[in-house]
Design brief:
mainly alpha, single chain
Amino acid sequence: MKVLREFYELMMFGARSYAKWDIDTSQRILHDRRRMAILGLLMLPILLIGVAFADQVSEALPSMLGSKQAYGPAYYTTTIFLASIAVGVVAGLITGCIGAGGGFIIAPALMSAGVKGILAVGTDLFHIFAKAIMGSVLHRKLGNISVSLAVTFLVGSIAGATLGGYINRTLYELNPVLSDTFITTIYVFLLGFLGFYGMADYFRMRKAAAAPAKSAKSAKSSKSAGATKKAAVVDDMTGLAKKVQSVNLPPMIHFDEGVVPGGRKVSAYFLVISGFIVGIAAAIMGVGGGFLTFPIFVYVLGVSASTTVGTDILQIVFTAGYAGIGQYAIYGFIFYTLAMGMLLGSLFGIQIGTLVTKVVSGVTIRGFFALAVMSAFVNRIFALPGKLASMGYIPMTAETGQLIERIGIGIFFVALSSFTVWVFWTFFANIKTLKRED
C-alpha cells in the first residue's frame, strides 16, 4: 500500500508538471499575435474546404468516423467543430483549475461521441504536437536539459511509439471493436488507479480540514513534514534509483553535473527501456507521456526534478510529433477538424481555470480532480461490457451492453458539465476579486 501511495504521488507530480507546461504553452500562444495568426491560418483551409465541399465529402465518407477504411477527413461541419471546441474547453479547464493534465478525458469524450478509439488517439496526439510546436517553450528550458540523457531516452520513446502505433493499427485491422476494447481497457486500469487514490486523498484532506483548530494545526505540521519528505523523495535519490545507478553496464550516460558534485550516471539501457515504456503508452493512449516520465525519471532513475522538467518537455514534442504523424497521420487516423477545435478550446479553457484557482481552496480542487478522473473511469468501464459481449467474451445481449454504455456516457457528461458550470460560475461570481488581485 505504501508503494502504491508513493507511486500515486509521483504520478500526480508528473501530471502537475505536465499541466504547468501546458499552461505555459497556452499563455505563450494567446499572448503572441504571430502565433495566433498561425493558428488562424491552420484553421482557414479546414473552414474553406468544409464550406465548399462538405456535402460531397461527407457523402463519400463512411457513416462512422474511424471505420475500417482509413482516411484523413478535413471537412467542416458546425456541429463537429463546436463539439471539438467544447471538449478542448473542458480539458483546458481541468488543466488550469486542477493543475493536472486534462488529456485523460479527451479520448474517452471523443469515443463517447462516436469516434473510433484509434482516431481519437491519433487526433489527441496531433493536438498535443500542434500545441507543443506553437508554444515554442524549448528555448526557455534548454538549461535544464541533459542532451545525452534526452537523446538516449528518445531512442527508446521513438521505438515504443512505433510499436504502440503498430499495435493499435494491427488490432484495428483485425477488428475495430477489438481496438476500441484494448484502448478502453488501458484507460480503465490507469484511470481506476488514479481515481480511487484521488478520492481517498480528497476525503483524507477534507477530514483534516474539518478537524478542530488544534488538530488542524497538528495536521498542517504533519502535512508539512510529509511535503518535506516528498520533496526529499523528489530531490534526493530513492533506494531503487541508487540500485539502478549502481549498475555499471556501459555505455553510461552522465547528467546532473550542475546539481550534485561530479554529476550522476546511469546505464543507457535503463534510459532506453524507460523511453520505450513512455513511447508505447503515448502511442496507445494518445497522451504526451509526461505523467509517466516524471515518476520513472525521479523514482526509478534518480534524475533531479529540474533536469526531468526539461527532458520531459523535449520528449513531449518529439514523441507526440512522431507518434501523431508517423504512426497515425500518414495512415489517415487523424481528424484534423477535431484537433484544431480542441486546440482552440483548450487555449481559452486553461485561462479561466488558472484564474479560478485563486479563489477556491486546495481541498476543493483535489475533489474536482478526483471527480473528473472517476467520471472518465466510469465512462470507460461502463463501455467495456458491451465491447466484450460483442466479441463473444461474455454472455450479454447487444441491447443490454448499449444500455450500460449509455449510462456511463450519461454519468460522464453530467459530471463534466457540472464541473464546467461550477468553474464558470465561480469565475464570474468572483470576477471583481480577480480584477483587484490583478
